[in-house]
From TrEMBL:
RNaseP catalyzes the removal of the 5'-leader sequence from pre-tRNA to produce the mature 5'-terminus. It can also cleave other RNA substrates such as 4.5S RNA. The protein component plays an auxiliary but essential role in vivo by binding to the 5'-leader sequence and broadening the substrate specificity of the ribozyme. This is Ribonuclease P protein component. It comes from Rhodococcus indonesiensis. GO terms for molecular function: ribonuclease P activity. It catalyses: Endonucleolytic cleavage of RNA, removing 5'-extranucleotides from tRNA precursor. Pfam families: Ribonuclease_P. Belongs to the RnpA family. The keyword RNA-binding applies. Consists of a catalytic RNA component (M1 or rnpB) and a protein subunit. Keywords: Endonuclease, Hydrolase, Nuclease, RNA-binding, tRNA processing. It is an enzyme of class 3 (hydrolase). Its EC number is 3.1.26.5.
Length: 125
């Protein structure tokens, strides 16, 4: 599970990340990212923050919550790899409902690698 300090909660943070940040599209999701200013880091927790957007287009509530849980789990493994000042929003597309967890992991890592936030798209080990 993704610990509370590493989660985006405020609407303004989501909006800023999606509107002002860079994005990288994948088949089943879109990764948006922005790096926070140094002044903002002093008052924040001091780690990367992740947020998730899983709309009704993905499926009914059970499916949406399953996709969100899988994405939270994937991002929990990335906390040590993503720079401290980064805000990341992962927006699930309808294909995420039928994608495997391994495929979603690969797509998130690939998107973050293309944005220059992780070293490589391959999972270690």
């Amino acid at each position: 599970m993704l610990p509370e300090p590493y989660r985006l909660r405020r609407r303004a943070d989501f909006s800023e990340t999606v509107r002002r940040g860079r994005r990288q599209g994948r088949r089943d999701l879109v990764v948006h990212a922005i790096e926070r200013e140094q002044a903002e880091l002093v008052v924040s927790f001091g780690g990367p923050r992740f947020g998730f957007v899983v709309s009704k287009a993905v499926g009914p509530a059970v499916i949406r919550h399953r996709v969100a849980r899988r994405l939270r789990h994937i991002c929990a493994t990335l906390v040590d790899e993503v720079p401290v000042g980064a805000d990341v929003v992962v927006r699930a597309l309808p294909g995420a409902a039928s994608a495997s967890s391994r495929e979603l992991d690969r797509q998130v890592r690939s998107g973050l690698a293309r944005l220059g936030l992780v070293e490589t798209a391959r999972r270690p080990g």
